[in-house]
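One thing: mind reviewing this one?
=====
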Amino acid sequence: MVVDSGRRPLDRRDGTPADEGRVASPQGTDSGRARSLMNRIPRSHSLALLAGLAVAALTAACGTGSGHGGGGPPSKPTAFIPSPANGQVSLTWAANPPGEVVQSYNLYWGPKSPVGVGYTPNLVTTSTNSAVVSGLTNETTYYFVVTAVNGAGESVRSNETSAVPLHSSAKAIGAGFTHSCAILSDGVMVCWGESATCELGNDCKQFFRSALELDHSNFPVRVDESTPAVEVVAGQQYTCALLSDGTIDCWGAGPSGMGRTVRLLRCQCPESTTRS
């Protein structure tokens, strides 16, 4: 910095007065003090400071994340658990994380999986992390998903779960090699597990099919039998039940040594023989 004859500070590069081109402002005002401060800060640092202030302002106005006090929808619900009963299914799921804005939950359900694909699902809206779906048909599988909702929108769907409502509790159980069966208190019989040889007894049309076509079921399915059952026995690939009228019904594949007294050789559906 140099000084001319009039004692005005000059710029070293071109000799012009250092304050030329600047707009004077009263140093006693807030705006004047701010301009004075900015003039002392290197230009690169000033731009970084302004950028940081802009980001902070946008963050405060719009928020960040999925519903965490900001502008996004909530995260998807987790820990989705069904509890089936007579003609109904109770469902619970974990509440969304603290600080995440959730106004309500949408529970979608229907008789096919995936829920809502190819059909319009049923909808239950609740303000809590639980719901009860009633008026269901027993021994029928139903599928459920849930979403969280706030003012910014709806979350993605939870993992799908399913449940089978039943008439009542079981009074007899038979466990086989890869399947099991139970007799409910009203005499209705249900089975679940693998069904390579139609051992579940539920409308099995083809015997010893390929692995891609098996009628396996992770949930109880009703056996095609109208007479109430009293006792049930499940073997490696067969099932036999004693009915209330004294008839023995068997279905599945009859292994060696079972004999033919109950006609248990590869029958495709429950076949009967009168108990002697």
Q: What stands out?
A: Residues 58-65, 206-213, 256-269 have pLDDT under 50 and may be disordered.
